[in-house]
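Appendix B. Raw example, untouched.
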Amino acid sequence: MHLSLIQKVNNEQKKAAVVDVRSGDTVRVHQKVKEGNKERIQIFEGVVIRTDHKKSHTSRITVRKISSGVGVEKSFLLHSPLVEKVDIIRRTKVRRKYLSFLRQRSGKGARLTAIDFDRQSVNAVQETAEAKAEEARLKAFAKAEAEAKAAEKVAAEAELAAKQAEVEARHAETK
């Protein structure tokens, strides 16, 4: 019972479709960043040095880039709602899952051998009918919520107008 409940929650957290990212790929990760009450998309581009738990809802990639001469690594949960999308820029031939040796190399020594691949087909994530239905349900819910908010606003404005008319009537009586 408990295990099936956990599995159900995990499957709800999963995105319908995720790009097949491999070690050695150069990727561009679009991530939502909240700063105060504003939200924006930040792009992190680098080489995938590690992939973990590919079939799980906790699938993770570790991306490494060199910024101002300093190596920067960042891990991304692929099914996180903060990760908008992952674009594969370049695919290389590697024979390992974890490319830790790239940390000690720099310049030409850190180059990997590129292979040809169909960039459009790899980056196109096929959405299932279930994902489309979920998206439609969320849009309908948002629309209903917006309509309720608008109705609430109209009611508040009507209440304000009634109070204003009452105040004006009192002022007319006192004159």
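End of appendix B.
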